[in-house]
Amino acid sequence: MLRSQEWLRCTERYRQYLQTLGRSPHTIETTLSALGNFARFCRERRRCPCPELAPAWLASLYGLYARWTVRGYYFALRSFLRWQGGANPLAEIPVPHERDVPIRPYSLFELRRFLRATRDSPRDTTLLLLLIGSGMRASELVALSVGDVDWEAGTLLIRNGKGGKNRRVAPGERALGALRAYLTAERIRRGWLFPGLNGGHLRADSLYHLVERLGERAGISGANVHRFRHTFAHEFLAAGADVGDLQQLLGHSTIAMSLRYGRYFAADRALEASRKYNPADRLVG
User: Fold this and answer.
1) Which residues are catalytic?
2) In the sheet that 167-169 helps form, which strands lie side by side, from edge to edge?
């Protein structure tokens, strides 16, 4: 069992270990986010992070996160416990299956409720608008710096995304307006757009936790950061945009992945076509 400060020191050493293995910044950030999620689960139960709580933590993730996210969290904590040595309860638990179920995007009504929940915090409003308007991953958003903003072109440069790729996104005028107002109010002229503690940037895990809190405040069940990415894909395709463009904006390596993000839209479109071309309704006599 590790106390909070010991846990932080241990996870920092693990970060350094992953860096020596040549893991990408995205992989490292995702791994540390999973460990932070586990630590928060333990704290909410008034316990220090300990391996014995790992199975209960894993079970709590189902229904809150996509299955492939649960798989990623499982592998992250299992590898960390193996690196630590000693008891590793996850070694006895089968790998979670990646059930292929479309993730429901947020409705426009829910997005407005989210934004109303942030009206007292320009920073939180900016974070949400950037998530809504760009489809960025949480790890990509928190790692943005002032130099990544091209105000003239209205774009953001995402460096070292998944797979180490760079790409640009255009989050829209409202998000960029909120970003400019936030930077001016906070007098941020260089460095990270969203500073965190100890001179670094905001952690992805902190963004996950923020969205969960805002979802509770707004009365939105199952609120999590990743659903904003699916929401962007849904709205983008619903507006008539091309799936190849969606692949570029989301930073997917294959178009099949982008199609998976758009399956909820495809299901809606199929239902609408069924209503329009329903054979029973077209029967005569």
Assistant:
1) 137, 162, 226, 229, 252, 261
2) 149-150, 155-158, 167-169
